[in-house]
Design goal:
By secondary structure, this protein is α/β, with parallel strands linked by helices. It contains eight helices and 13 strands.
């Protein structure tokens, strides 16, 4: 559909950033902490049979694996060893599963939300105030249920390379996007009331945030704007501020390498992509 091609040209003007050499990557990766968001209630995931007694990220897949362990291994295999996990709902299922991180060859720290869920913005502010995040640290926020699969190359190397470039241009944060999102309905092209083209389940060329964000060590003061009074996410509050200041950078990964596992349908899609069978 020509109109979609035009829309893609308007909305998806990403650039290819320089990739760090392995030697350069080895020098900078020690500056990054991996922050895994694992405190949410995940009400839609309760559709998955047997999932109500555990945190979604720690829910056991048919092969015995979990989404949070898959995420940890991906970063650990690239040499990133410092992890902070933000927990609240069913926190014990996360802590009992992962422990100190020794079995993965990493260091895992935990930070609990203060008395009640405070959203991603509040959870990071809380981690700063409790000393789990340091002012001088760069960090990558990753929701473990945003699963990276079948990625060609090293995902950690690529996103850190892009963020290092973004910082050199004055940016404080880099969002990891896909450039298309599947539309679940039949799409149509309409001209003067007449349907001129029909497309079943078109891929809409609209950049979508994958739930993975890199932050520079300049953002400490930014998170003070978040309140503990109600859950608040940094995407809704902080991203528009950084965007207006031209301090928010975006990179793109292949659409097929990301799956957001938030309900029974997407869980079944994950199982299919992993070539697993339900027990």
């Amino acid at each position: 559909m020509q109109a979609l091609d035009q829309l893609k040209t308007q909305l998806c003007d990403v650039i290819e950033t320089p990739k760090l050499t392995q030697e350069e990557f080895d020098k900078v990766k020690k500056n990054y902490k991996i922050v895994l968001m694992a405190g949410g209630e995940s009400s839609r995931f309760k559709e998955v049979p047997g999932s109500t007694a555990t945190n979604k990220s720690a829910f056991t897949l048919p092969n015995g694996d979990t989404m949070i362990e898959m995420t940890i291994r991906m970063y650990a295999e690239a040499g990133l060893k410092d992890f902070l996990i933000l927990v609240y709902h069913h926190a014990s299922s996360i802590i009992d599963l992962l422990g100190s991180g020794d079995k993965y060859g990493v260091n895992i720290d935990y930070c609990f939300d203060p008395e009640k869920p405070v959203g991603k913005g509040g959870a990071i502010r809380n981690a700063y105030e409790k000393g789990h995040l340091k002012k001088e640290e760069k960090f990558i926020v990753h929701n473990p249920d945003d699963v990276i699969l079948n990625y060609s190359g090293s995902f950690p190397l690529d996103i850190i390379s892009a963020h290092e470039y973004a910082e050199s241009k004055g940016c404080e944060s880099t969002v990891v996007n896909v450039l298309e999102t599947p539309h679940q309905y039949t799409g149509m092209m309409i001209e003067k009331g007449f349907v001129t083209e029909v497309v079943m389940y078109p891929m809409l060329p609209i950049p979508i945030h994958t739930g993975i964000t890199l932050f520079s060590n300049k953002v400490f003061e930014r998170f003070k704007i978040f309140s503990y009074d109600k859950p608040t996410d940094f995407e809704k509050i902080l991203f528009p501020i950084l965007s207006n200041e031209r301090k928010l950078f975006a990179i793109a990964i292949p659409t097929g390498s990301w799956i957001a596992v938030n309900n029974l349908k997407s869980y079944k899609e994950l199982i299919k992509k992993l070539n697993l069978e339900e027990k």
